[in-house]
Write a structure and sequence with these properties.
seven-stranded mixed β-sheet; 2 domains; 21% strand; alpha/beta; Rossmann fold; six-stranded parallel β-sheet
Length: 312
């Protein structure tokens, strides 16, 4: 039975309210995996796109500065809520309206306690799914060290505006010495900064990839990793499916599916402050064996047995 059921009226078709969901992110196309997951999750709950729900999708192709303008467009469209991915999108959605409900994905656990600092009573309108990036940082370093024991230095590139990515780097710096790893990091403000940081990579190095689309950093690191044969660990299997060596973290699509429950409840009238922020339910380890061979990475049997996804 569907989530929203309206009784049939005599001599009339079934009456349904159609809800409008705004989508705001820095993706490079409308079909970001988190959005596709959201649609799938809502469909499982009985909410069909085109019948019960329409989507107003705004994406900025890695340009965080364009988010506010896109958020204002969604507010002017009078959507019922805004579904965001990434820290910067939350800030933009809030700044566009202090009344619009927001359901997020792809936000690090370090950001959750800071949400009230964005604006007055922000927790009264926001809930979502945390990608747990800070908590997962030590395990990511451990994995890259296991696959490439010769790694001595990890280069962590992160957007200057991304508080969550900075916190991941700081957590990595705490655990680095125990793994005999030097963590080299620096904020980037533009494409030139990204290219400059990537040029510092060499033998014995690895890349720690941030979990956002700002400045297209993950894609740029993927290309550099394969071209320069420097291993990289990604936050989600999406990049491993495109040739990255390894990832450890929640899948974007799965976060969207999980967020669908929260979105449906808000559409039904629930207050976001009554819906606790949830941690991602499923953490995946993904490995690309073709890339492992290219980079001469060792993939122990115990790691293969632990892997949730193996690309050959």
């Amino acid at each position: 039975m569907g989530l929203f059921v309206v009784p049939l009226r005599a001599n009339a078709q079934e009456a349904r309210r159609q809800y409008r969901i705004g989508v705001l992110n820095e993706a490079w196309a409308a079909n970001h995996p988190a959005v596709e997951g959201l649609k799938s999750g809502l469909k499982e709950l009985g909410l069909e796109e085109g019948r019960d729900i329409t989507f107003e999708i705004r994406y900025t192709q890695g340009n965080s500065q364009a988010l506010l303008g896109k958020a204002v467009e969604l507010v002017e469209k009078r959507v019922d809520l805004i579904f965001t991915s990434g820290d910067a999108a939350i800030h933009a959605a809030y700044n566009a309206s202090d009344k619009m409900p927001i359901v997020f994905t792809q936000v690090g656990d370090s950001v959750i306690p800071r949400l009230p600092q964005i604006g007055h009573n922000i927790r009264g309108k926001i809930t979502g799914i945390s990608s747990l990036n800070v908590r997962l940082a030590p395990k990511r370093l451990e994995i890259i060290k296991t696959l490439v024991p010769a790694t001595r230095r990890v280069v962590a590139i992160y957007p200057a505006s991304d508080v969550s990515a900075l916190m991941v780097v700081q957590e990595a710096q705490k655990i680095g010495p125990a793994l005999k790893l030097e963590i080299v990091s620096g904020p980037v403000f533009g494409d030139e900064d990204v290219r400059r940081m990537l040029k510092t990579g060499g033998p014995g190095d690895a890349f720690l990839v941030p979990d956002n689309d700002t400045l297209d950093i993950p894609s740029t690191i993927l290309e550099a990793s394969l071209t320069s044969r420097i291993p990289a660990i990604f936050p989600t299997p999406l990049w491993v499916s495109h040739g990255g060596l390894v990832s450890y973290g929640p899948d974007y699509y799965s976060q969207g599916v999980q967020a669908a429950r929260l979105v449906a409840k808000v559409l039904q009238g629930a207050r976001p402050q009554d819906l606790p922020v949830e941690g991602a339910e499923k953490i995946d380890l993904a490995i690309n064996l073709k890339t492992a061979a290219l980079l001469q990475a060792n993939v122990p049997r115990k790691v293969l047995l632990r892997a949730d996804r193996i690309y050959r």
